[in-house]
Amino acid sequence: MKLIEKINSDFKNALKNQDQSALSALRMLKSTIRNKEIELKEMPLDEKEVLRVISSEVKKRKMSLEEFRKGAREDLAEKEQEEIKILEEYLPEKISASELEKIIKKAINVKGATSEKDLGLVISYVMPIVQGRVEGNVMREKVLKMLQDL
Question: What is the pTM for the complete model shown?
């Protein structure tokens, strides 16, 4: 089953079961996907683009979660946490630190990276492989650290 089909199916189930948190998260996700289709003039979006949209939505909610906690709004923070949990079900499994290191080492060897100046080269090799399975800033920090250790 395609990812977008799974989202639509889960949306229908949330409607039937009157699951308000799932309904809210999936309604927002479907809306964001639709807006992205209009923006890119691409109907329907491919799996990679849908994953990017989901990752972006999770990232937005994590930032909101932090802000709600800073503002002592635990009710809203809890709602965001529920929506994050629902959306993360559609993302691929996170990559382990050791697996990420192996991929980065391979990228460094393939691209012939020798210093921090080659950061962009290494990231451009690694990103398509780990897309959606690791946060970009985590991957960037790991690549930078490994390049500094050369």
Answer: 0.77
> In which region does residue 132 sit, left (phi positive, over 0), alpha (psi from -120 to 50) or beta (all else)?
left
Q: How far apart are CA 31 and CA 29, in angstroms?
A: 5
Q: What's the rounded Cα separation, in Å, for the pair 109 and 111?
A: 6
Provide CB contacts within 8 A for 31, sequence distance 6+.
Answer: none
Cα 40 from Cα 87, distance rounded (Å): 22
Size (the chain), residues: 150
> In angstroms, how far is the first alpha carbon of the chain from the final one?
44
Please report the domains of the chain, with CATH numbers, ordered by start residue.
3-88 (1.10.1510.10), 97-148 (1.10.10.410)
Render pLDDT for 23-48 as a digit per residue (tens, 0 to 9): 999 999 999 999 999 998 878 888 88
Can you count the helices (H) and strands (E) in the chain? 7, 0
Q: Is the backbone of residue 41 left (phi > 0), alpha (psi -120 to 50) or beta?
A: left
Residue with tokens 């109907």: 43
